[in-house]
Amino acid sequence: MSDVSFTQGPPETVLEPEPEDLRAALRDADGRDAVAAVAARWPRSLEAWSQLGDLGRDDVEAYAYYRVGYHRGLDRLRQSGWRGSGYVRWRHESNRGFLRSLEGLRRTAEAIGEADEADRCTQFLRQLDPDWPPPDA
After folding, report:
1. CA 99-102-105 angle, 5° bins
2. Separation of alpha carbons 13 and 83, rounded Å
3. Average pLDDT of the residues in 70-99
4. Which domains does the chain have, with CATH numbers?
5. Which of the listed residues 41, 58, 74, 129 has the most CB atoms within 10 Å of its CB?
């Protein structure tokens, strides 16, 4: 007879916080060019890409930045043990750069007429965090 292990539901992944010097650089960055310089220095920063998306000059530029943040986020999630399912919740601040990128991708996909992609993003956000959208997103 084998032992049976019961879990408390789907696994939850919490990304490692971004380095303090990167976070300080983003806090000090004033405008798109300054945030772009931070992203160039730390190209794996999820928060930098999501902020660049927020500062995009049009929907297409914002979409591209959010997409980079989304894909970088998937890489970071996998490196953190995520296997393609389970929770990545907003309540953990270190997950927010990824979730902001995914939400931005959803919004801009909708804005440029990619309704199917926007729907997939909505579904993915709700799978990652059943409480989506959070009140402070």
Report:
1. 150
2. 10
3. 97
4. 20-128 (1.25.40)
5. 129
